[in-house]
Design goal:
This protein is of the alpha+beta class and 365 residues long. It has two domains: 293 residues, Beta Polymerase, domain 2, CATH 3.30.460.20; 59 residues, Methane Monooxygenase Hydroxylase, Chain G, domain 1, CATH 1.20.58. It contains twelve helices and seven strands.
Length: 365
């Protein structure tokens, strides 16, 4: 049992996770944040042609330089971003310094550029943390050149490209028979497809939250609504700009993109458009959940007020009768009657019972 999952509810402020809010909204494009350089980098080369394949693990970026001129398609993937490594690769492969700045940036908006005979795109891979329920991001930069692709990732322990690696290891697959532009399409398509995995996780949480609100809503339900809305903001912020990124590839006249590859990028465009629409639907669902929560709270309040009103009405006859017989007058009917007390008590019981019957027939409760 994970005790940390429940300990956070002991602090009322932690329930609403204001620290997460600061993390999401603390973005100032005029201030360039400093990237913490990776202590080590992992470099993987996939060098292939229709008839040959080579997978190499390297320790230094300078060892990747010979793969530029070997006439095969080379995918150079660097896990762990260090400024010296990025600048060395850029200098050898003819990558403009503006692209280097984008690679070294933090919390950059997804974008696509065409500078000096290379196509560059930057976007985020998304992951769903099951323990914290948060959408986590990892920035990836992809550079498409003549017969090569250079990609920079922040985390060496996870990505979404394992299926692509497996296809490259198999002979006569479409990846092996196609050029670098098709590999670029495959990488982008895999990133976009993984967005749906994250969205399915969020969708499951929204559905479970809706059931809990209908059954028994409380302050924790409001906190979960608030938390999910923040994660949807992260999702929307990273998914929405990718549509412009893919449109950039479709509209590009670069010689690096074959005409037959354009239809594949159009397929990604369809997927990212659907993802945007789904994200909008999730946002509408969260607004509806908030309205449902408020309606449920108001319904509870109305039920309480109705019970209190009924109890007050049922006690009113007894209060009136007791007040009348408690007045300091000598001539009150049945005041000195031997059965006067029992008559008063009988009236106090009969009138409320009669009122309950009338209320029930009218459907007031």
């Amino acid at each position: 049992m994970n005790s940390n999952k429940y300990l956070k509810y002991l602090n009322p402020l932690s329930v609403f996770d204001t620290k997460r809010t600061r993390t999401i909204f603390h973005v100032n494009p005029t201030v360039i944040p400093e990237r913490v350089e990776a202590t080590e980098s992992k470099i993987t080369i996939f060098d292939y042609s229709p008839s040959s394949f080579q997978e190499v693990q390297l320790n230094q970026v300078t060892d990747t330089f010979p793969f530029k001129e070997n006439n095969n398609v080379s995918w150079i993937n660097v896990d762990g971003i260090r400024k010296a490594d990025v600048e060395a690769v850029a200098a050898h492969f003819g990558i403009h310094y503006l692209i280097v700045e984008d690679i070294m940036s933090v919390s950059q908006r997804p974008k696509m550029d065409e500078i000096e005979n290379v196509l560059f795109c930057l976007l985020n891979m998304l992951y769903f943390n099951e323990q914290t329920g948060a959408v986590e991001t990892e920035q990836i930069s992809i550079i498409l050149g003549a017969n090569f692709i250079v990609s920079f990732q922040e985390d060496a322990n996870r990505d979404v490209f394992n299926s692509i690696r497996e296809k490259l290891r198999i002979n006569h697959t479409k990846l092996r028979l196609s050029g670098a532009d098709y590999l670029c399409y495959a990488l982008l398509d895999m990133i976009v497809d993984h967005y749906y995995t994250v969205m399915e996780k969020l969708g499951d949480r929204i559905e479970m939250l809706e059931e809990r609100i209908i059954r028994n809503s409380n302050t924790r339900s409001l906190a979960e609504i608030n938390s999910l809305r923040k994660e949807l903001i992260v999702l929307k912020r990273n998914v929405s700009p990718v549509r412009d990124l893919i449109n950039g590839f479709i509209r590009s006249d670069s010689d690096l993109l074959e005409e037959k590859t354009t239809k594949y990028f159009k397929d990604i465009l369809d997927h990212i458009t659907q993802a945007n629409e789904l994200a909008e639907s999730y946002r509408d669902m969260m607004m509806n959940l908030q309205d449902l929560y408020l309606s449920h709270v108001n319904l509870k309040s109305n039920e309480v007020m109705k019970v209190m009103t009924v109890v007050t009405c049922l006690l009113a006859p007894a209060t009136v009768i007791g007040g009348m017989f408690g007045m300091n007058f000598d001539n009150i009917p049945y005041l000195h009657h031997q059965y006067g007390f029992f008559i008063a008590v009988g009236l106090m019981l009969f009138v409320p019972i009669w009122m309950v019957v009338v209320f029930k027939r009218r459907g007031w409760f």
